[in-house]
Amino acid sequence: MSQEQEVLLTPLGEGVFEIRLNRPERMNALGVATVAALQQAVADATAQRARVLLIKGTGRAFCAGADLKERKGMDLQGKLDHNAGINAAVNAVAGARCVTVAVINGLALGGGLEMALACDLRLAAAGVSIGLTESRVGAFPGAGGTQRLSRAIGRSRALQLMLTGEPVTSEYAEHIGLVSEVVPAEALDARALALGQLLASRSATAQAEIKRLVSQGLELPLTAGLQLERAALPGIFSSVDYAEGLAAFAEKRPPQFTGVVH
To answer: What is the pTM of this model?
Structure first.
């Protein structure tokens, strides 16, 4: 299977794109070729001015994590290079200026959950298994999991998930804030598309600033974070999108935002 086939990029209209991991026979495990194709798909979607990326898996899994069958035959440098590739792909998702949504259609384990954690939002089908299971094979999450999970759900719960290596259900994941919404499996695609269309209707300029301020602000004391927020206001208040938003509000019509974030 070629790189192009392992990851599919599909435009869904109105700035919404779907990136689909397409290795169902391996539960969409992240092999060397897969992560290179994933990183390229993010770059291609960005080049096409994607407003929203919906990331999903083909078949019964979202992503089972690193392809351990492939990794087993690697020497130490090969294993490190493979992990670096996964990190690069995950970081490409995390660094996207557009809004990213993990559409967790099936199990999301190890690197699969790390990829979902790099997304801005996470939707999950009911009853799927989610977890960072690396401790089961004598490793630890090495593609951002030790850092992003604790920021998402807090130190204690993150440690419990990582130290035990036990996955949880999507329903429990919603309870602890690991996913934002759980929907019946048969409704997942429709819900994801509806959310993508809603997100794409908002100001890309404002969304990019929201993402930046939240990400950078989490690393700062509250006072410094508030200063960061205030420093961003002149750019927003002078933007084309804000002028359009004010005009649309006054004219009682939906805004037509044109701001593009590269």
So the answer is: 0.93
